[in-house]
Amino acid sequence: MASTSNSLKALDNFINNEHIQPTAGKYFDTFEPSRGRPHAQIPDSTKADVELAYQAASKAFPGWSKTSRAERAKILYRIADLIESRLDEFAQAESKDQGKPVELARTVDIPRAAHNFRFFAGRILHSVEEAGDLAGIGFNYTQRMPIGVVGLISPWNLPLYLLTWKIAPCIACGNTAVCKPSEFTSLTAYLLCSVLKEAGLPAGVVNMVFGTGMGAGQAIVEHPRIPVISFTGGTVTGAKIIANSAQHFKKLSLELGGKNANIVFADCDFEQALTTSLRSSFANQGEICLCGSRIFVERPIYEKFLERLVQGAKNLKVGDPTKKETNLGALVSKEHWEKVLSYVELGKQEGGKIECGGQKPTDLPDDFKDGYFLEPTIISGLTPSCRVMREEIFGPVVTIYAFDTEDEVIALTNDSEYGLSCSVWTENGRRARRVAQSIEAGYVWVNTWMARDLRMPFGGMKKSGLGREGGDHSLDFYSELKTICLAD
Length: 488
Ligand code: NAD
Hints:
GO terms for molecular function: oxidoreductase activity, acting on the aldehyde or oxo group of donors, NAD or NADP as acceptor. Belongs to the aldehyde dehydrogenase family. By secondary structure, the protein is of the alpha/beta class. The protein folds into two domains: about 10-255 and about 465-485, Aldehyde Dehydrogenase, Chain A, domain 1 (3-Layer(aba) Sandwich), CATH 3.40.605.10; about 260-455, Aldehyde Dehydrogenase, Chain A, domain 2 (3-Layer(aba) Sandwich), CATH 3.40.309. The protein is about 40% helix and about 20% strand. It has helices spanning about 45-65, 70-85, 85-100, 100-125, 160-170, 185-200, 215-220, 235-245, 270-280, 300-315, 335-350, 405-415, 430-440, 470-475; strands spanning about 1-5, 10, 15, 20, 25-30, 35-45, 130-135, 140-145, 150-155, 175-180, 205-210, 230, 250-255, 260-265, 295-300, 355, 375-380, 395-405, 420, 420-425, 445, 460, 465, 480-485. Strand 9, helix 5 (about 160-170) and strand 10 (about 175-180) form a beta-alpha-beta unit. Helix 1 (about 45-65) crosses helix 7 and helix 4 (about 100-125) packs parallel to helix 5. The longest helix is centred in the first third of the chain and has 25 residues, at about 100-125. Bound molecules: nicotinamide-adenine-dinucleotide. The site of nicotinamide-adenine-dinucleotide has 32 residues, from helix 7 and helix 8. Nicotinamide-adenine-dinucleotide binds next to helix 7 and helix 8.
């Protein structure tokens, strides 16, 4: 870490396995959301820093792309072990930087980051390409070729989890990377740099450039020699990335926003649907792209479900993220908190009833009075055309709506510009299949939520994304697939 004129510690970029200051020497503050005060400084990297990172990655590519799969896997396994050995340090950093409960980071974010490396280490070792003999023509086989320097741009909601979801398959496939984590949450990416070095990853294979989207992010997207971009973030940013990379015909994977439906039929396992709906509504303060923010409940159980959901939401503890019993920490930033609050106001204007929450808790300990907290909020009484029921809020705010028929709820669910995920609650197997098949979403869960199998494709339909990652889909994305024909 460097020190700047400010008394806060400043992070450095990580290029060629060295920590270096941004070329322009500029930094900005990053905030601790639960206390509403700055806790570190982030390099405000520019095009020149991205160029340095690109040069390092480009120099490392010939060597790294020729290492055996076994050698790459060995390093990825080591990275996973090292992350796990520093679990508490990573979890505390993630919570401090993002606002989420330490316990959530300790049990979900960080273990999953380690698992990403372990999963793709195994996958690259055990995957085989296609081969086939066509009599009279020849024997064909495919080869996954490393592509080159890849740009990896990640958001703030699950910082290390989503960044490593990109880094692991990218380098497992023999590419090198220029990464840019969100400017709101750079801390665990910074810690990861020391892990990568300690694990023996050769210099230049992974380079970390910190800074804003308009600065470092756009410079990666517009770099003429970075042919592949994997991006997770908002839909509006995704559209800019498509436009800004178009002239270079870049290969893009875009994992974008959502407005996911949570469909509860009257024949569901009520308690299971209720408990999981509380989680899918409010886990990580509702700041998970997969959260079910539109709850549709079949009319016969609507009143009972609403009453119990409100009761459950009121019982959730909001506050000090370091306490084990805390369910919701702080929202990531003041701007985001204000945006989410503005949707609560909009909900009222649109005729909604705030069933619970809607404001900052009044009983926060002194130390957290300036934090960006919001009570879990449930809004009823809105019609499906309301903005609050259509736009992504990305906070602890859900709407609830009664439906009468299967066809109606399918139409309501699909009447969205997004198509990321959906949960369906029913004990009727035939209905489960029918509904799952009709829903326009990349991932449909029946009687569960966010159960992830990394071997399965992940990605969104419509404005929720382009492409799929996961399992061999990730290997295909991070490789150039070549067909070779040996003539008979
Ligand atoms: P964001 O789009 O504002 O930022 C994401 C990243 O892109 C950040 O690193 C940012 O600095 C960078 N960026 C911003 N503008 C850029 C530009 N013009 N060029 C290049 N990079 C740029 O998103 P966010 O607010 O950090 O994250 C929240 C969004 O992410 C939500 O919409 C959420 O649904 C979505 N998300 C989607 C998934 C998924 O898997 N589909 C997962 C997590 C989050």
